[in-house]
Amino acid sequence: MKREVTIKRKTNETDIELFLNIDGSGKIESDIPVGFLTHMIDLFAKHGLFDLNIKAKGDTYIDEHHTVEDIGIVLGEAFAKALGEKTGIKRYGFFILPMDESLATVAIDFAGRYSFRFECPFVREKVGDLSTELIKHFWDAFAQNAKVNLYIKVENGENEHHKIEAIFKSAARAIRMACEIDERVKDKIPSTKGKL
Q1: In whole angstroms, what separates CA 103 from the centre of its chain?
Q2: Which of 83, 144, 152, 184 is the most exposed place for a label (fewest CB within 10 A)?
Q3: Which helix (H) or strand (E) holds 15?
Q4: What CA–CA distance (Å, rounded) separates 53 from 179?
Q5: What is the dihedral of CA 23, 29, 33, 36, to 10 degrees?
Q6: To which H or E segment does residue 29 belong?
Q7: Is the pTM above the cut of 0.90?
Q8: pLDDT by residue (tens digit) across 103-116?
Q9: How far is residue 68's CA from residue 107's CA, in Å, rounded to a whole number?
Q10: Do 153 and 135 touch, CB atoms closer than 8 A?
Q11: What is the tens place of the pLDDT at every residue in 57-67?
């Protein structure tokens, strides 16, 4: 069964279309009006081996908030829908990733329930054209819509670019791990409840 999906979201603030293939090879096509987020999404696809095609328009003449948050929403919805009942997945994923002086830890549980914790202090207000405060909002929106428990922590970082890049790469690897099929229980739901 192919684990791929196309999601469209159109509001008065944004117009987003996203294609996701969980079992891809890291191919990415993106048209996002926020350059630094484009860079991070490219890294995410590459390290997660997800095929992604994202076309996004938003009211960036106001600021980038709506566009960034709504891409997080759509990406979360895409993972939730592409995984379906989550039969056979490993469910849990975690990764500790060094990025120069920064160290990011990401842990995720595709539990069907939302919980989010983010620990990463930023000093600079922006990196490129992206407000650093929106990194938390992006991943919170993702977690709510993917219905996951998501834990993100960055330690030892001095450079904001490195901190954010470490988050996206580590998240990609953790999500990739959680979405992989466990061959020992490939026909079963990974929960004693029988449903996630």
Answers
A1: 18
A2: 184
A3: strand 14-21
A4: 19
A5: 70
A6: strand 28-31
A7: yes
A8: 999 999 999 999 99
A9: 22
A10: no
A11: 999 999 999 99
